[in-house]
Amino acid sequence: PLAATPAPAHAQPISALAGQPGVAHPPRVEIIALTGDDALLEQIGQALDGESTFRHVESVAAAHEFIRPARPCVLLLDARGFADLNATVAGVQSPDGTCIVVVLAPPDESANVARSLKGSATFAILSIPVEPGPTIAVLDGAREEALARFTLAAQRVVASVATHAPAAPAVAPPLPAEREAPEPASLAVVPAIARTL
In whole angstroms, what is the distance from residue 49 CA to residue 139 CA? Predict the structure, then answer.
């Protein structure tokens, strides 16, 4: 089967990021099969290991119900029936880039499909009918990439929140009970300190 070279990994492996502070435990990766071919669904099912949530949809609109930010997923896109594959792949991307697209195509169309998807965000191309061995290998790589992108997206959110968080207001220390309160003029410095933090 023809498998395109996976997209360059611009993310660190998930194992290196799992313990980073501020990154929640990643959710299960959703595998979404966009096809109307029941035989293909059965072949895909044989390559799944039970570690991911599996969903079947028959349209791009239905796929968008499950492709959301902060939800890592792998979309298996049946190339048959789509005139403009490049536009379809671009259209199913999640806003944060955590959706990994694997295209499935018949062997006699694989070369044309690969040419049409050059420069797209396609992770790999698998031949139809799918074979368990290569499919398992590609799905494993796609899941790892989805989780790595999810982790990086989560870290970016945490960093953005930390960068834009308001400074904690300065608070004057409590006065000992036996001392008298200072003159009101000396309290005016507290708001000024708060503005400079």
Answer: 10
Does an H or E element contain 196, and which?
Answer: helix 189-196
Q: Determine the residue type at 85.
A: L
Sign of the dihedral defined by the CA atoms of residues 104, 107, 112, 115, in that order: positive
Task: Name the 3-class secondary structure at 103.
Answer: strand
Band of residue 157 on the pLDDT scale cut at 50, 70, 90: low
* Each residue's pLDDT tens digit, 63-77: 999 998 778 999 999
> Please, are residues 118 and 7 in contact by the beta-carbon 8 Å criterion?
no
Which backbone phi and psi does 95 adopt, to 5 degrees?
-55, -35
| Cα-based distances in Å from 108 to 1, 103, 113, 132 | 11, 14, 10, 20
DSSP string, 43-56: HHHHH--SSSEEEE
- The two tokens of residue 1 are 């089967």
